Amino acid sequence: MTTLKLKMLDPAGHTAYAVLVVASVLVCWKSLTVLMKYGWSHESSSQILAIPIITLFLIWLDRRRIFATTGFSIIFGTAAIVSGGILFWVADQESLRLRGNEDLCLSALSIAIIWTGGFLLCYGPRAVRAAAFPLLFLLLMVPIPDPILDWVIYLLQQGSTEITYVIFRSLGVPVLRQGFLLSVPGVTIEVAKECSSIRSSMALLITCLLAARLYLRTWWKALLLVLLSLPLSVVKNGIRIATLTLLSVYVNPDFLRGDLHRDGGFVFFFLALLILWPVFVALEKSERPPISRPNSDAVAPAG
User: How distant, in Å, are the alpha carbons of 143, 196, 253, 272 from that of 46?
Assistant: First the structure.
């Protein structure tokens, strides 16, 4: 037997998993430290620091269903941990050092696999199936590989430039576009990589993932909400660039170098949430069962 059933919320599984996670943290401490520093210094990976905490919260929130039937899955859990360990060893080899951040991506992926394998080992396949979303969510702690990240940022630049151009034209502002350069009377701006707003785009994607998981039960409605975050990220960034440019032209040139430009991403992030809110409310309301109304044709008893 490879799976030994335990009682619901049996502390044995929790103790074993806690020991395994602590041991993995000690063994992988150097890589985890590099990963945390990377997340702190790279906008595209700033979510790394929060992902494990959010994952724990999601598991705790749904703990009664996840741990309803637990067990030790020795063979498959051990196999997953060993696989993660081998991947971690490969990523740590100087002779196999990859270009860019790919070695760090492999290290982070291996740690996520080890933690997931430990979950399988300590709680069994039923608990893993019940905790599928939090465990998959843990993959967001893996940095985006540089080649893919460059492609994503390019798409954000391209889309943001197009949206900004459309906004200027819609407002009647004379504008000339050359690639990522937009010229309006008084200023020429470049939608550079730093203007792609990758951090707030990731934040919007994660917010939609969590909202879909917590409030939507129909898979296609959840998928729709998550997919809407992608074009909305571009629209939000286009509005941000157009707003800052117009403020610099008609109010004060310092708007292109001030606090709103450097740290004002959260303002337009909340604007994106405001735009998305009616869609979310409509999807969430459609999940509710219809309220049964009393039959108006029923005859009231005499009395």
Answer: 9, 15, 30, 19
Where do we find the tokens 């996520």? 112
CB 198 within 8 A of CB 152: yes
Nearest in space to 137 (alpha carbons), one of 68, 54, 13, 25: 54
- Chain position carrying tokens 């602590």: 22
Give pLDDT tens digits for 41-72.
888 888 898 999 999 999 999 999 999 888 88
DSSP 165-204: HHHHHHTT---EEETTEEEETTEEEE--GGGS-HHHHHHH
Rounded CA separation 24/86 (Å) = 13
Domain boundaries, the chain: 3-143, 148-286
Helix (H, G, I), strand (E, B) or coil at 293: coil
Q: Two tokens at 132?
A: 């599928």
Q: What angle do CA 113, 19, 11 make, to 5 degrees?
A: 105
- Is 289 strand, coil or helix? coil
Say what the pTM is: 0.83
Q: Which residue has the tokens 């941000």?
A: 240
The Cα–Cα gap between 291 and 303 comes to 29
How far apart (Å, rounded) are the C-alpha atoms in residues 280 and 33?
A: 37
At 253, list the tokens: 């040139």
**Residue corresponding to tokens 């034209």:** 169
Residue 60 to residue 58: CA distance in whole angstroms: 5
Asked if pLDDT for residue 302 goes beyond 50, the answer is: no
- Find out whether 130 and 70 touch, Cβ atoms under 8 Å: no
Place of tokens 């999601």: 58
